[in-house]
Amino acid sequence: MDLINIALDGPAAAGKSTIARQVASKLSMIYVDTGAMYRAITYKYLQNNKPEDFKALVDQTTLELTYDKSKGQRILLDDQDVTDFLRENDVTQNVSYVASKAPVRTFAVEKQKDLAAKKGIVMDGRDIGTVVLPNAELKVYMIASVEERAERRQKENEQCGIPSTLSQLKKEIEERDHYDMNRDISPLKKADDAITVDTTGKTIEEVTEEIMNLVNNL
Ligand code: C5P
């Protein structure tokens, strides 16, 4: 099969990164987590006491993606590996705001397009099928009930030692989705030619197989 790109979009905690990682590994493709890029810029925004000049912020930022055999994608922000800080609560609470800013999106989208130029990429995010890779060979829009998404995130947080409660996570996920879906620039929405995959009640293996079937039918 010729090299392809796969775009995976959807609301928060729908299972995108877990599935994207599985699919990329099965197809020997590279997985790119674009949420981590917005999270890294948000980390810098917080470290710099929330400056409102986002153009200046990104103009003074270098962001690089590297791959570690055991740890997967790592994010180098100004030459420092910040990957382990990107799931912290203050980053999660501010990332939608930072990601709504034009200079931030221009900066991140340009890098994402470059990464995918040679193909062989599975990229997950909110605007991949609509803006970043409008010509991706396969576009998937992944959804799941908010209850299940909160439960999954709770388990992930437990594993990473991040404190949270189910009701707090449900509220945070709903608020973040609302913000992401209603922002002016590149809001989260299903591309017209994306295939919706509902992961509610399905195992990682079942969803991975569903997507592998879509790939095999291209
Ligand atoms: O996927 P993740 O939950 O890490 O994304 C964090 C936030 O980054 C999202 O809630 C959204 O505000 C932003 N984002 C975005 N566009 C993307 C990926 C993430 O705006 N392609």
Automatic annotation (TrEMBL):
Its EC number is 2.7.4.25. This is Cytidylate kinase. ATP binds at residues 10-18. Pfam families: Cytidylate_kin. It is found in: Cytoplasm. It catalyses: CMP + ATP = CDP + ADP; dCMP + ATP = dCDP + ADP. The keyword Metal-binding does not apply. InterPro entries: Cytidylate_kin, Cytidylate_kinase_dom, P-loop_NTPase. The gene is cmk. PANTHER family: CYTIDYLATE KINASE, CYTIDYLATE KINASE/PANTOATE-BETA-ALANINE LIGASE. It comes from the Bacteria. It comes from Staphylococcus borealis. Its main location: cytoplasm. Belongs to the cytidylate kinase family. Type 1 subfamily. Residues 6-216 form the Cytidylate kinase domain. One of its GO terms (molecular function) is kinase activity. Keywords: ATP-binding, Cytoplasm, Kinase, Nucleotide-binding, Transferase.
